[in-house]
Write a structure and sequence with these properties.
Elements: H1 3-18, H2 21-28, H3 32-46, E1 51-54, E2 57-60, H4 62-90, E3 95-99, H5 101-118, E4 124-128, H6 131-139, E5 145-149, H7 152-157, E6 158-173, E7 193-196, H8 203-214, E8 220-224, H9 228-237, E9 241-245, H10 246-252, E10 259-263, E11 269-277, H11 284-298
Parallel strand pairs: 3-4, 3-5, 7-8, 7-9
Antiparallel strand pairs: 1-2, 5-11, 6-9, 6-10, 6-11
Helix pairs in contact: 1-2, 1-3, 1-4, 2-3, 5-10
Length: about 300
């Protein structure tokens, strides 16, 4: 049976399940004429009437009921076979995930550890990109999904699955003049040497630049870097400051007595979540991973690996 006939049977079964061409078209995201044409094609191919049509209501004929019962069973078998074959093929293809260097250290690593213990047969492949670059890679279908900082672009263009929220800290060496501050405003950072992440690739850089612009201040940028090790070195060597996530500081630098994190006033909140493209059929392995993420996030155990 060719693909065209299978689609006609899918349309027919959807009309039977919903009792309406309109609802079937909405569920299948196709036009009503396409549904009607498919049913007419089936009726013509077998010289049968499948529905009684009375006062805009549809009810199955005896022949229609016969076809529905068998077509439903056939489509279930086809879908089951398709899923199993895809699963066999997917065993050779890891799930490709874009993650920023900072998020990878405090969030992706524990996620990977927990998921691998539960599903060692499913491979994850991490690509280190900033949130903005991850969006580009996802648009070009170079990755399957990405863990990023929420942005208006991500919310409008992709399917968003929230995972956690953190905030930005202004991080300095313990010898910095602001090291003892309980909070710091952007206005107090005028003239301070800063290490910034590139706004062209990293959402943190964009958020911080916006805060400076709102304050009418041009940041004094000593270095632009996305490398955490280098940022930490410049904080200490050049008595500079950098904007890092509170969750990163808590998870990855909790024993570091040389760097101090100061909350911003007002806070810059950082929602973190997973994005994927609309309209793309999820692999069986990707579905397992997303279900695991949702379950672990709801239980508050994302960073326990």
């Amino acid at each position: 049976m060719n693909e065209l006939r299978l689609n006609q049977l899918r349309y027919f079964c959807e009309v039977c399940d919903t009792g309406s061409v309109t609802r079937a078209a909405n569920n299948l995201h196709i036009t009503q004429p396409s549904i009607s044409a498919a049913i007419k094609a089936l009726e013509s191919a077998y010289a049968l009437s499948l529905f009684y049509r009375e006062r805009n209501r549809l009810s199955l004929t005896k022949e229609g009921a016969f076809l529905y019962e068998r077509a439903k069973s056939l489509l279930e078998q086809v879908d089951d076979l398709d899923g199993k074959l895809r699963g066999l093929g997917e065993q050779r293809h890891p799930i490709r995930i874009g993650v920023s260097p900072m998020i990878s250290t405090f969030l992706f690593l524990p996620i990977f550890n927990q998921f691998h213990r539960r599903h060692p047969e499913i491979a994850l492949e991490m690509y280190e990109y900033g949130s903005i670059e991850s969006i580009r890679q996802l648009q070009n279908h170079q990755i399957d999904m990405a863990i990023i900082i929420e942005s208006s672009q991500a919310a409008g263009e992709f399917i968003w699955q929230g995972l956690m929220e953190t905030s930005l800290l202004f991080c300095v060496s313990r010898d910095h003049k602001l090291a003892g501050a309980r909070k710091v405003r952007v206005e107090e950072l005028e003239g301070e040497r800063l290490i910034m992440m590139r706004a062209t690739s990293y959402q943190i850089g964009t958020l911080v630049n916006q805060r400076f612009a709102e304050a009418g201040i041009t940041p004094n940028i000593l270095l632009q870097s996305n490398q955490i090790t280098l940022i930490r070195r410049y904080i200490q060597t050049y008595n500079a400051g950098a904007f890092l996530m509170e969750a990163f500081m808590r998870q990855c630098m909790k024993g570091d007595r040389e760097v101090v994190g100061i909350p911003l006033d007002p806070a810059i909140r950082i929602p973190i979540g997973l994005i994927r493209n609309h309209g793309e059929k999820l692999s069986q392995q990707a579905s397992v991973f997303l279900e695991f993420l949702g379950e672990t996030a709801r239980a508050g155990r994302l960073m326990e690996g």
